[in-house]
Amino acid sequence: MSAGASEPVERTGRLRPLLPGLAVALAVALVGMAVHKRFDAISPHVVAVGFGILGATFGRVEESFRPGLRFSAKRVLRGGIVLLGFRLSLSELGKLGPRALVAVVVVVTATFFGTQWLARRLGLTRSLGLLMATGYSICGASAIAAVEPFADGTEEEVAYSIALVTLCGTLAIVVLPALGTLLNLPASQFGSWVGASVHDVGQVVAAASTHGATALKFAVIVKLTRVALLAPVLAGVAVSSRRRLGAAAIAGAKRPPLLPLFIVLFLVAVAIRSTGVVPTSWLPHIQDVETVLLGMGLVGLGSNVDLRKLRAVGGRPLMLGLASWVLVAVVSLAAVKLSSL
Questions:
Q1: What's the DSSP call for residue 281?
Q2: For 54-70, how does the pLDDT look when each residue is reduced to its tens digit (9 = 90+)?
Q3: Where are the alpha helices (DSSP H) in 39-76?
């Protein structure tokens, strides 16, 4: 057999072990989409993570599934993050106005650095603090997966971060609408508050839609502005990691890239969407593919979360998660109020 003919065979051999896990991840992601279409308040990403966690906790993740689930958690999820860029248009982000843009930057900055400060005060590791800070300040489990290569955390730390950010985001769907009514917030302020403080895009839509179309519009614009900040935040983390690992790099270890390829492609997707060359009729289909890919990745991430093992981590990470949730909610509400004056 010639070398050229052997290459497809080799690729098929590498792909075959991934197929069972990829099939499971795809099936669960599609279930999550179906549930979301039937019940708007339930995020497809929460369903995906939830199935993964339940499978890991109750021992339903077969060994044959693990290669494909690991591939989903790494490669497939990053593909979803790239397509997330097609939700963003620079013209839409510009509609916020300078004061609102500053407010979003303040919320992300305060949550990112505040969560890491809280982690140090609680005696937690730098890696866990970084993972949770990125998840709570940007876009939940997707952001945790994006920063994971730079965090150098254990599987348990990644799992705990995802579990907590998912829990708090789900609670926000119930808690924030009730608080918004209690505080008598106008629809625009409530939507901005939800977009600035809730982690997952699906959870933002679920929470904001309880207060009408105006609240939903403001929530989505503010949320996508937070998502856009994923790139500069990761660039800053990468620079910090390169400096921290500088000595190791001199000794022969590989330094992390200044900006991961999938974040570069995310920015390319934003640029393409901003030009208007993508027909509007294509965008819902791109978003469906994005939802499926992110769902598959979150199934893979959730499959590492065995809740029984997380008991050994102790209560301090839980304290950090709840404190960070309160921090982002309070700072974002203050920022929204001040930007509306």
A1: G
A2: 888 887 778 888 899 98
A3: 44-57, 66-71
DSSP category for residue 278: S
Q: Enter the DSSP assignment of 153.
A: -
- Cα–Cα distance, 112 to 121 (Å, whole number): 15
Does residue 51 sit in helix, strand or coil? Answer: helix
Cα 306–Cα 308–Cα 312 angle in degrees, nearest 5: 105
| Res 111: pLDDT | 94
The helix-helix angle for 126-137 and 316-339 (nearest 10°) equals 40
Q: According to the model, what pLDDT value does residue 30 have?
A: 95
Q: Cα separations (Å) of 171 from 152, 156, 192, 204?
A: 29, 22, 18, 11
How high is the pLDDT of residue 7?
A: 56
Q: Which residues contact 245 (CB under 8 A, 6 or more apart)?
A: 253, 255, 256
The residues near 165 (Cβ < 8 Å, ≥ 6 apart) are 132, 135, 136, 140, 141, 144, 199, 321
Q: Greater confidence, 174 or 309?
A: 174
Collect all residues with Cβ–Cβ distance below 8 Å to 193 and sequence separation of at least 6: 176, 180, 185, 329, 332, 333, 336
How many angstroms separate the CA atoms of 75 and 297, rounded?
Answer: 8
Contacts 24+ apart (CB under 8 A), 203-208: 203/43, 203/45, 203/46, 203/140, 203/169, 203/170, 203/172, 203/173, 205/40, 205/43, 206/40, 206/41, 206/42, 206/43, 206/173, 207/172, 207/173, 207/176, 207/177
Euclidean distance between CA atoms 107 and 128, whole angstroms:
20
Q: Is 36 left (phi over 0), alpha (psi -120 to 50) or beta?
A: alpha
Residue range 303-319: mean pLDDT, rounded: 76
**pTM for the full model?**
0.75
**133 in Cβ contact with 120 (< 8 Å):** no
Which of 336, 62, 335 lies closest to 215 in space, CA to CA? 336
Cα–Cα separations (whole angstroms), residue 30 to 42, 64, 102, 209: 14, 21, 37, 23
Long-range contacts of 143-146 (CB under 8 A, 24+ apart): 143/230, 144/301, 145/73, 145/74, 145/77, 145/78, 145/81, 145/297, 145/301, 146/78, 146/81, 146/230, 146/234, 146/260, 146/262, 146/263
